[in-house]
Amino acid sequence: MKPSVPVFGDHALARWRERFAAFDIHKEYDASIPYGCQIGTGILLLSPCDAVFAIKEGNFVVTVLTKEQAVVNVQAFIRTNQVLKTTTPDQRLIEMAYAHARSPFDGHDFKKQCLQELRAKGFDTSNARLMQNYRKAFDEMRNETKAKKLP
Q1: Could you read off the pLDDT of 17-44 as tens digits, one per residue?
Q2: What 3-state DSSP class applies to 64?
Q3: Fewer CB within 10 A of the end CB, N or C, for the chain?
């Protein structure tokens, strides 16, 4: 729902003057309608001149975007969240194993550090199947990395 009395921040006013100086900000705001991907407590409103008001904290207008900028931002948000949602725990584990294997470090302290990182990311390092998959991916990447360094 659109706040009836907006508070325009300095940044929003500067973007308005930069992009839409020929229009009256209050008239455009009053004529605006909800637009795009409404995320969290933020609201996007599209005005008749194709200005998009980004509102946070109830009635505070944070910035004013062009319609094209708003579309790009929403598309980037959707792409990012689709990638995060489609990545399985096994894929994240393998990515971590590859990152660890590319590291030039080795030894007991390095192994402890890797295990701590896995635990910090929510992996159960006492799970034998999980750690077997991690070790397999780690060894695979470590061998590949070493093979590339050989003359």
Answers
A1: 999 999 999 999 999 998 876 666 688 8
A2: strand
A3: C
Sorted by sequence, the CB contacts under 8 Å of residue 33 that are 6+ apart come out as 2, 45, 46
pLDDT mean over 127-139: 89
Helix (H, G, I), strand (E, B) or coil at 43: strand
Write the burial class of residue 21 (CB in 10 Å: 0-12 exposed, 13-18 middle, 19+ buried): exposed
Secondary element (H or E) of residue 7: strand 7-8
Q: How far apart are CA 117 and CA 96, in angstroms?
A: 9
CA-CA distance, 116 to 29, in Å (whole number)?
51
Model confidence at 76, pLDDT cuts 50, 70, 90, reads confident
